[in-house]
Amino acid sequence: MTQPTSATATSAATSSSSSGPSRAVMDTYARLNVVFERGEGSWLISTEGERYLDFGSGIAVNLLGHAHPKLVEALTEQAKKLWHTSNLYRVAGQERLAERLCAATFADRVFFCNSGAEAVEGAIKLTRRYHHVSGRPERYRLITFKGAFHGRTLATIAAAGNEKYLDGFGPQMPGFDVLPVGDIAAVEAAIGPETAGILIEPVQGEGGIRVIPVEFLRQLRELCDRHGLLLVFDEVQCGMGRTGKLFAHEWAGITPDVMAIAKGIGGGFPVGAFLATEEAARGLAPGTHGSTFGGNPLAMAVGNAVLDVVLEPGFLEGVQKTANRFKQELARLKDELPDVIEEIRGAGLLMGLRLKPPVADVVKACTEEKLLAVSAGENVLRLLPPLNISESELTEGLARLSRALRRFSTSQS
């Protein structure tokens, strides 16, 4: 096969960028035909110079918007000094971030990785390993819940049990019992001699912005305590202040034994982690788990900067105030557009509109109004503005959302 010259390849790449998506990139996403070249706070600016208000936040990743000065400064300063050493050596920023996360949560130990899927996979391994070193190696199964999304690895798609993500990838990895949310009797009946723990998202994001009732979370905690199981929370999407608390499970007044986080903790830089109590973590000895890039100096500099902002006095209270207004305005829209909006879901600045028209069409209409939003399961439009969005930006975003939704209303003139 004749290989293209460097000049030919460069020309082809430039051409595809200007005319449409490049064939060189695997076709695994239904991408919108827009390319962004820079971001400013709650805004993204395309290569065409058009400004979009970002209510998707990179799917709950850009917690503090785009190019936040504290994050830029932290990354720039670290980049001048040291990028990577591997975990063969101590990493000062990693130790600092772990200590701060432990001080702010239930946890005693933290393992850093690069993504939410890795964090959940690590939490699953830790749960199995805990029982192994406790003399109960037969305990390896986790109870999980319908509507969940835990990542794209073979283990995490099996944990969620969604046929859409399992299709075509061979035999499903064993070890997961997927149950309906809210049926505590079914959960108790499913606990057997092989059960190691229970894995749940306090707010199901990808599954349709479904908030798990706090009473159900409390019942799961009680069951785990009674049966010697580990309670594992997946707060990859709902954590890091998105619901108005540092972590969503705090609203229930309970703590897990293990928790997976990612997305917002890096503010746009790839950072993931799983946190655990001293007891739960005791099975992970040297050599039992690892990550080449996990917790490297660049990632830790950004993670510490994100935590600096989120833990500032009054920040989370500000998120709650913004969220209350956001929810009220969405409720008003629902009242005005009952033929478009079926239900409002969510917590904090993790909100969803269950729609009557196809959500893909509404996402397209929002994009045409220069508003970025994200679809979710059950025909839900996900709305995830940055936690530090201004009042005026929220007002503008709501106006654009209203215009997009009114296109689908038969009652609007």
Key descriptive features of the protein:
413 residues, 2 domains, 14 helices, alpha/beta, disordered N terminus, Aspartate Aminotransferase, domain 1
Structure at a glance:
By secondary structure, this protein is an alpha/beta fold.
Question: How would you explain this protein's 3D organization?
Answer:
By secondary structure, the chain is an alpha/beta fold. The protein folds into 2 domains: 70-310, 3-Layer(aba) Sandwich (Aspartate Aminotransferase, domain 2); 314-413, Alpha-Beta Complex (Aspartate Aminotransferase, domain 1). The chain is built from 14 helices and 17 strands. The chain has helices at residues 6-19, 57-60, 69-79, 92-104, 116-133, 154-160, 163-166, 184-190, 214-227, 278-281, 297-310, 315-336, 359-368, 391-406; strands at 36-40, 43-46, 51-54, 109-113, 141-145, 176-179, 195-200, 203-204, 210-211, 230-234, 258-261, 272-276, 341-347, 350-355, 371-372, 374-376, 380-383. The strands form 4 sheets. Strands 4-12-11-10-7-5-6 form a 7-stranded mixed β-sheet, with helices on both faces. It has a 4-stranded mixed β-sheet with strand order 1-2-3-15. It has a 4-stranded antiparallel β-sheet with strand order 13-14-17-16, with helices on one face. Helix 4 runs parallel beside helix 11. The longest helix is centred in the C-terminal third of the chain and has 22 residues, at 315-336. The protein starts with 5 loop residues before the first helix and ends in a 7-residue tail after the last helix.
What would you call the structural class? Answer: alpha/beta
Q: What overall geometry do the principal axes of the alpha carbons give?
A: globular
Q: How many beta strands in the DSSP annotation?
A: 17
Low-confidence stretches: 1-17
CATH T-level topology of the largest domain: Aspartate Aminotransferase, domain 2
Largest sheet report = 7 strands, mixed
- Residue-averaged pLDDT, rounded? 94
What is the first-to-last residue Cα distance? Answer: 60 Å
Radius of gyration from the alpha-carbon trace, in angstroms: 22 Å
